Amino acid sequence: MSTRSIYEMAEAIAPGWEHWRARIEDIVSPVRAWMLAELAARPGDTVLELAAGAGDTGFETAAVVGERGRLISTDFSPAMLDVARRRGAELGLRNVDCRLMDAERIELDADAVDGVLCRFGYMLMPDPAAALAETRRVLRRGGRLALAVWGPPERNPWITIGFGLLVEHGHLPPPDPGDPGPFAMADEEGTRALLADAGFRSVRTEEIPVRFAFRDLDDYTTFSTDTGGPAALALRGMPEHEREALRAQLRAAFAPFETGGRYELPGVALAAVAS
Q: Average model confidence (pLDDT) for the chain?
């Protein structure tokens, strides 16, 4: 997937991410809590968030660093950045600088920040090695990076079931090895190697379980159509008769996760803290 394609996708799904922001944050709250605890920001620190989306992970840090500190909340999608600006204004934060920025070319001086956050961002970048090298460059000595990506496909059926059906029926191309995507950094050893190659000497990883709960199939398909990256764009352009056929297949595939008409699908994030 090209940088242009990723940009267009982010622009297209930004309204959906804003609409579903509260539920997304509730689902991934264990990931957010782990990242913030491991970053261990202090009053007066400057923290950079890359691929911030709606910005909530960084906004919690803004409260910690206080008036003497600063959060630089960034995204390379103007639409996503607007979502973060509105969220920051809603929270009344005054120590946040929202900037349009490509994580592979960070427009900051070397040794400029005390900490970096990136939640589910590096895996979607065309060149995560370049982004991690840039992250290391802007971090001050002793500074920390806290990141999260999605873990192995087999432990994230909330992604793989729907995506697999879309690929099977030709609505999406099969992902090429090495392409950006939710599982591009799912291998723990591979992610550790990327961090080491970027210059990080101390790396610790941890798996964090999450659960995606949906009232019914309509709830799942609406959520996916609004927020699901390439799957969202495929679903939006799907004729109604094909959408109905997909629903029937989803119902069968989701059966192991159904209780009383509701669905609860597990997920696992791979989180890392590096310095």
A: 94
